[in-house]
Design brief:
Blueprint: H1 2-14, H2 24-48, H3 51-64, H4 76-83
């Protein structure tokens, strides 16, 4: 039964135009590493900016991503996460 499943999976990918099919777990790990690298770059960029400019950009990005409201408070979603921990 196991060999039949392997053959079916092999046949499925044999007809795929993408020869470089990355296994799901490797793809997830690649995305995780990319995300962490981008976040490190963003934080480094903030550190290199004048303090007020960095604060303004940070606030804009937090609002853009619906993490905080314009008044600086957490959105309802993030407030509920904070209190449920």
């Amino acid at each position: 039964m196991e060999n039949k499943a392997k053959k079916q999976a092999s046949d499925l990918y044999a007809n795929d135009k993408e020869a470089d099919v990355m296994p799901v777990i490797e793809l997830i790990e690649h995305e995780r590493i990319t995300y962490i690298k981008e976040m490190e770059d963003y934080l480094q960029k903030l550190k290199e900016m004048p303090k007020e400019q960095a604060k303004k950009l940070s606030k804009e990005n937090l609002m853009k991503n619906n993490i905080i409201k314009e008044n600086g408070e957490f959105t309802d979603y993030y407030r509920s996460l904070k209190f449920n921990q």
